[in-house]
Amino acid sequence: MALNKSMHPRNRYKDKPPDFAYLASKYPEFQQHVHTNLTGRVGLNFKDPEAVRALTCTLLKEDFGLTIEIPLERLIPTVPLRLNYIHWVEDLIGGAGDGAPRRGIDIGTGASCIYPLLGATMNGWFFLATEVDDICFNYAKKNVEQNGLSDLIKVVKVPQKTLLMDALKEESAMVYDFCMCNPPFFANQLEAKGVNSRNAHRPPPSSVNTGGVTEIMAEGGELEFVKRIIHDSLQLKKRLRWYSCMLGKKCSLTPLKEELRKQGVPKVTHTEFCQGRTMRWALAWSFYDDVTVPSPPSKKRKLEKVRKPLSFMVLQPTLKLLQAKVSETSSPAHSSVELITTWMEKTLTELRVLHKRVPSGTAELSLFLTAVENSWIHIRQRRRDHGRQLRELPRAPPDGGSAALQPAETAQPAQDADTHAAAQGSEVTESGEGAAESQGSEGKEGDSIPGQEHESGVAVSSTAPATQEAAPAAARPSSPGAAQHFLFKCLVKTQESEGDVSVEMHWVEGQNRDLMNQLCTYLKNTLHRQASSPP
């Protein structure tokens, strides 16, 4: 449920996901589809259409008092995602009218008739629900009747390719407050199977794709389908206060907004629907000047979400070893926090990472870091290469030949990191579970270590900055704040924790978060190696 925190604020499942164990104990038909793993956690196989259908029917019964039937060969909706759309429509029409009952149109209502059922049950909305498929029409009508909502919902069978114009021909000139639509996302069978519509780097869908041909496919896919609705709206104009559609692909949003701009539509907005690992987008437009336009989601939503800092602990035995080594060469540090901070300052100086102390709390010390070059990667490899070069040099014969053949003693690099661990970022990650941070889907967008993409979508190799290591020292800025070109900036907090010392690295900005991961791993490994090495 990675995206649940980004659900609509009023969505009842935002902070309280469905309790599968409770639902299984109450509904025997749902219980047969749940399973319990070795840890005792109750789960559901979302690739099983029967299990998905059982969950949808159970949630509608438990939380909304609705009893519905859905054939397996037709689209099985997910309740939390549909609820997001309902709440957004509430936002769209909230300031419209004079308290009169709201009226809406659901284009292609499906067998479940879920939008009209939810809108009528929750808000008392009147619905005109259209459907072109015979099976879906029959089930939708049955679901409305068995829930006693025929006075609020009218299900009508319409010809193929009918959208708004034909559906409203026989209707009176009444004004509808809104229309909503879950259009067919795909243009052909290949797209429906994800063959040519899914980024090769994205994992496969985690749930089954159900639905009839008319529900999941249309000529030209969702882009052309929504353009047809836009064309109808240009003729109907103020017959509806708001026109809206859900989109399955983010790439459809920009061309549709551009189409509305070209047509001179005055009011346009959009939003995101998040549920589990799924994201959808929605577009709405209006020809009324007095409607209140909800603000689209912030472009910085991903940047603003709380990110866990990278961290590692320095335990008491390590602190004592490090303190003993420091005492041999200099005066002891006043505290364990001061000891670790001073050691990091020395190590960062050797790595040519810009740093300075910044004000912090009474029980902690903080450093602001700016990395302008990747100086911590492949140190061990370079040391091995250097040793190999020395071994390959000719040496003086045992009988005391020319001293010119004896290689001069060369200083070893100051640091020797486990660069394989640093390069892979496998010991310290943002989640603390040995995995690089992932973003969301359809968003969401995953990070990888080699050839990783930063947030602008430009590929950044974790080893690419090696070319910057040759930069002359004179060209490097003298302080963290003076750097105009940098790899990343972060804040390092060191504080005592029950006798141990905690080190946290908080991301500020930069190209690639994995570079900070590498540096964190390097610092951790180097500290423990120096503490445990013989004097």
UniProtKB/TrEMBL annotation:
- What Enzyme Commission number(s) does the record list for this chain? 2.1.1.-
Q: Where in the cell is it found?
A: Cytoplasm; Nucleus
Q: Where is the composition biased (Low complexity)?
A: 431-441, 461-480
Q: Does the keyword RNA-binding apply?
A: yes
What Pfam families does the database record attribute to this sequence? Methyltransf_10
Q: Name one GO molecular function term.
A: U6 snRNA (adenine-(43)-N(6))-methyltransferase activity
Alphabetically list the UniProt keywords. Answer: Cytoplasm, Methyltransferase, Nucleus, RNA-binding, S-adenosyl-L-methionine, Transferase
* Cellular-component GO terms for this entry: cytoplasm; nucleus
**Kind of enzyme, top EC level?**
transferase
Which parts of the sequence bind S-adenosyl-L-methionine?
R82, G108, E131, N182
Location of region: Disordered: 383-480
Answer whether the UniProt record assigns the keyword Mitochondrion to this protein: no
User: Compositional bias of type Basic and acidic residues: which residue ranges?
Assistant: 442-456
GO BP of this protein: mRNA processing; positive regulation of catabolic process; positive regulation of RNA metabolic process; regulation of mRNA stability; rRNA base methylation
Q: Which family does it belong to?
A: Belongs to the methyltransferase superfamily. METTL16/RlmF family.
Tell me, what does this protein do in biology?
RNA N6-methyltransferase that methylates adenosine residues at the N(6) position of a subset of RNAs and is involved in S-adenosyl-L-methionine homeostasis by regulating expression of MAT2A transcripts. Able to N6-methylate a subset of mRNAs and U6 small nuclear RNAs (U6 snRNAs). In contrast to the METTL3-METTL14 heterodimer, only able to methylate a limited number of RNAs: requires both a 5'UACAGAGAA-3' nonamer sequence and a specific RNA structure.
Name of the featured protein: U6 small nuclear RNA (adenine-(43)-N(6))-methyltransferase
Which species does the entry assign this protein to?
Megalops atlanticus
